[in-house]
Amino acid sequence: MEHITLLLAIVIVTALVFDFTNGFHDTANAMATTISTGALKPKTAVAMSAVLNLVGAFLSVEVAKTISGGIINEDGLRTEVIFAALVGAILWNLLTWLVGLPSSSSHALFGGLIGAAVMSAGWSSVDGGTVVTKVLLPAVAAPVVAGLAALLATKLTYRIGGKVTGGAQEKATAKGYRAGQIASAGLVSLAHGTNDAQKTMGIITLALVTGGVLSPGSNPPVWVIVSAGLAIALGTYLGGWRIIRTMGSGLTDLRPPQGFAAQTSAATVILASSHLGFSLSTTQSCSGAVMGAGLGRKGGVVRWSTATRMFVAWGLTLPAAGLVGAGAELLTKQGTWGVVVVAALLVAGSGAIWMLSRRKPVGHDDVAPAGADAEPAGVVTMAIAAVSPPPTAAAQPHDLTATIPAPAGPVADPARPATV
Amino acid sequence: MNIDWAALGTVFGVSLVATVALVGLFTLGIVGLSKQPEPAAQGGSSGGPAGSAGGSLMLARAGAYVCFGLCAAAVAYGIYLIVA
């Protein structure tokens, strides 16, 4: 560790920050429906998800070893490029969180990497075919596959269980569905830990390799595994309540049988895709499953305005994160001062988004099904609020022109996600 | 560009079948467990009908536990897939 330069240290910290945003961005995948059907209390749900994410991070390092996945050529990749890519991915993650839309953290990372690589070495450094097969096609296929599976499963469960009616019995069966849903949600969390925490491990390892600290092809060191696992677990525990609200009750109204069907479909699709060689995005599978389950119940509705906003966000993820990544790379190319400026802009941009989110905070009380007990604000939440860096007066105007408009422009209504 | 349609098709098929099968099994289990012992409760004096109703109730319960067992096995297999 003695050869770690300032730049490398910045990259590692940034990667961990990305891991953290990844955690709270993706809590919704596993837990949104679990919370909205009342299977688990909000705080219990995120705590369980966090623990499983942490466990998952230690299970294997296979994903970490194949992180770049051939989308960009690793040779000649400089540490600054990775840094610029992370900046793009973090800002896009925070922005989609602010408007409460689920979008793929992996796509944000890919977008940032592509943008930064193109700015650094030209279009030849990006393999267009790989982008289509690894990012674009899965983005279309994931919601369709998961949605269809959830739709059929919901129809089936209502057909078989249709005879069960009446207050007491319906209550008893709802309990059963909730238990099943918790199991499915646990699987999703565990799979998320093994996949997404490892992406960060892969990034840090890649940075260490390009920085000359590690030899190419080495496994991630233990401290990398531990810190990445902790960062994603902490992010998950804080919970991206805005996104949970959108997915749990914004897209459609879920009852316990639907929630069970949706979560099982998501878990199956994620496991099947990652083990049969056609990787599908977790976020998109889960959103698709929720919509499918919504359509599967007689009289169920999907709020297509919210769904459309989500689709738009998916379409914008790659180019928006790419643009920010490219802009950041343009600055870091200028030398050390450029890196420092980008780091300052990242802090300022994150701070600005945080300030905007405080105007209309969404907490765990806002996602619970009606009648759930309110709890006092978590210690961790308050601690984060206390240590979160406020944007400096000098940096903010500059930052707003430099980073916010690019991704913010096309999103129609950044102020409020439509929820009922 | 080389799109692996076969892999996509496999994922599609496996996901669909597995999800529907699992949810179906689980629902059967829940329905089996939720069967109420109505005939037995209302007629304590007549031994015959109550006995056969109790038998079908037992059968429903046993079937439900088999269904839940299969679901638990699927979850275990899922964990195995993640770990391996």
TrEMBL record, chain A:
Keywords: Membrane, Phosphate transport, Transmembrane, Transmembrane helix, Transport. It comes from the Bacteria. InterPro entries: Phos_transporter. Its main location: membrane. The keyword Transmembrane helix applies. The keyword Ubl conjugation does not apply. It is found in: Membrane. Residues 390-420 are annotated as: Disordered. It is a multi-pass membrane protein. The chain crosses the membrane at residues 6-24, 45-61, 81-101, 108-126, 132-153, 200-217, 223-244, 311-331, 337-356. Pfam families: PHO4. Belongs to the inorganic phosphate transporter (PiT) (TC 2.A.20) family. This is Phosphate transporter.
TrEMBL record, chain B:
The chain crosses the membrane at residues 6-33, 62-83. It comes from the Bacteria. Keywords: Membrane, Transmembrane, Transmembrane helix. This is Secreted protein.
